[in-house]
Design a protein that fits this description.
This protein has 466 residues and is α/β, with parallel strands linked by helices. It folds into 3 domains: 29-93; 109-249, 2-Layer Sandwich (Nucleotidyltransferase, domain 5), CATH 3.30.420; 256-465, Rossmann fold, CATH 3.40.50.1460. It has helices spanning 3-15, 21-26, 31-34, 38-54, 68-93, 108-112, 165-190, 247-253, 282-290, 311-318, 352-355, 387-393, 410-422, 435-450, 455-458; strands spanning 120-126, 129-136, 139-144, 206-211, 240-243, 265-269, 301-305, 323-327, 330-331, 341-343, 349-351, 365-369, 398-402, 461-465. The strands form 3 sheets. It has a 6-stranded mixed β-sheet with strand order 7-6-8-12-13-14, with helices on both faces. Helix 4 runs antiparallel to helix 5. The chain is globular. InterPro entries: CHAT_dom (IPR024983).
Length: 466
């Protein structure tokens, strides 16, 4: 890569998703350290667990008559000691052979490895210009897209009043068209994806989108000219799209699967937590999943449903599961994104901050069939903080989520078709890396049923990760 592009990529990756940086540092794989110094690896693992689970808020033992201030000061001092111990341990690791760059920011050569499964496209809006860096397998390239002013994701943004359906549809189509002609097609030209009137019957090429700023709120996976009915004018005619919050997160997700055995699957369903409307399709989703395990003799499938779906029980079951499916309500907290949550029985919930604190050694794939699980915050567009990204950071390698609310009638059909594809093989273990293609085909089927212009039905579903 030309030096300036490589430096730009390194700096962008360092600044990207700043809110995740410390957590990712604590969750780093210690396998390389353990191969050289088992005792040091175990020590760091213990420190990391304490820092992850408690931070500065740990309720350390204190005398009954101590003031709240004294207890807080003690907790803070203990936390600082642990942080210092962690930092000292990191320095010890860097003295070990082969570990000299442990926890250093990744170099451009390391970041380039993320493109092993397909182009990685980092898009940064700068004023009216869109800058693009593209990573290709074994190659590198930097381009600048045409100057453009992109539309808004929300067709109702331009007014406080409700917009008529036809007008809203037209605004949305304009935005998708701008994404297609001013962002996606120039990128396709740069990486030699031929946009033609006779696209392949079976789309197999993958592309990984890493948008920043306002573009992280826009549905690049749905870009296209929807005034033209024929094939060859929409992004999904040519590639299978996935999103990533950072390049490093993709590299982490691409690590070898934890096990070659068939996955253990956990299904969680809560139709109506306290204060929420009833979701009509949760039972149907679980039935579709259950149908793939008619006898379940090997206990590969577990259900945690309705009143049994407490935070404690769900988190406990997640530790043993490699795949997890949530059919429930999700809520996005735009003011405090880490408080965004999956709603369980009664008033219980699993917040984003809970997900990034738990240890999930078997984690591979998560399907969040809930509303707003991959909705970013317009106040923190650079941080990609949402529940689906939290699942990725917690150790899952691939995640299906939604960027806004979905219809009850659509979610069961998408879940049925996704698992129908993932669990189609009679022999051999299902592969979580098939999830992107599974969703691509499931949404294609949904479009055929509801119509291409039923954007609110099919656009929300996205794949994140490897």
């Amino acid at each position: 890569m030309v030096g300036e592009y490589g430096l730009a990529l390194e700096l962008l990756e360092r600044g990207r998703s700043a809110s995740w940086s410390q957590l990712l540092g604590l969750r780093v794989s210690l396998d390389g350290v353990r191969a050289v110094d088992v005792a040091l690896a175990d020590k760091m693992c213990d420190i990391a667990k304490i820092l992850q689970f408690t931070g500065a808020q740990h309720d350390y033992a204190s005398a009954p008559n101590e003031s709240a201030y004294a207890r807080e000061e003690m907790a803070g001092n203990r936390h600082r000691l642990l942080v210092n111990e962690w930092n000292n341990s990191v320095e010890e690791v860097r003295k070990l052979p082969g570990c000299e760059r442990f926890l250093f920011p990744k170099t451009v050569d390391e970041l380039m490895l993320a493109a092993e499964d397909g182009p990685v496209v980092v898009i940064t809006p700068v004023g009216r210009r869109t800058n693009v860096l593209i990573l290709l397998p074994g190659k590198d390239l930097g381009i600048r897209a045409k100057k453009s002013r992109l539309g808004s994701l929300d067709p109702w943004d331009e007014t406080d009043d409700w917009v008529e359906k036809d007008r809203a549809e037209a605004l949305f189509e304009d935005m998708l068209s701008e994404l297609w002609y001013k962002v996606v097609r120039p990128i396709f030209d740069a990486i030699a994806i031929a946009v033609r009137s006779n696209p392949p019957d079976v789309v197999q090429d993958r592309i990984f989108w890493c948008p920043t700023g306002e573009l992280s709120l826009l549905p690049l996976h749905a870009a296209g000219d929807y005034t033209r009915a024929e094939r060859g004018h929409k992004i999904y005619d040519f590639v299978v799209s996935s999103y990533i919050p950072t390049i490093s997160s993709l590299l982490n997700a691409q690590r070898t699967s934890n096990t070659a055995a068939a996955p253990r699957i956990l299904a969680v369903a809560v139709a109506q937590p306290t204060g929420q409307v009833h979701i009509g399709g949760t039972k149907q989703e679980i039935q579709y999943l259950r149908s793939h395990f008619p006898d379940n003799e090997d206990k590969r499938f577990e259900e945690v449903l309705e009143n049994n779906a407490t935070r404690e029980s769900v988190l406990h079951s997640m530790r043993d599961a490699s795949w997890v499916h949530f059919a429930c309500h999700g809520v996005q907290d735009v003011s405090q994104p880490t408080k965004s949550a999956l709603l369980l029985t009664g008033t219980e919930e699993i917040m984003l901050e809970n997900l990034i604190q738990i240890d999930l050694p078997q984690a591979e794939f998560a399907f969040l069939s809930a509303c707003q699980t991959a909705t970013g915050s317009d106040t923190l567009p650079e941080d990609s903080i949402h529940i689906a990204a939290g699942m990725l950071m917690a150790g899952y390698k691939g995640v299906i989520g939604t960027i806004w609310s979905v219809f009850d009638r659509d979610a069961p059909d998408v879940a049925r078709d996704v698992y129908g594809y993932l669990l189609r093989k009679k022999e051999g273990a299902p592969d979580y890396k098939d999830a992107a293609m599974a969703l691509h085909l499931a949404v294609e089927g949904l479009r055929e049923r509801v119509g291409t212009k039923a954007y609110l039905s099919w656009v929300p579903f996205i794949h994140i990760g490897s």
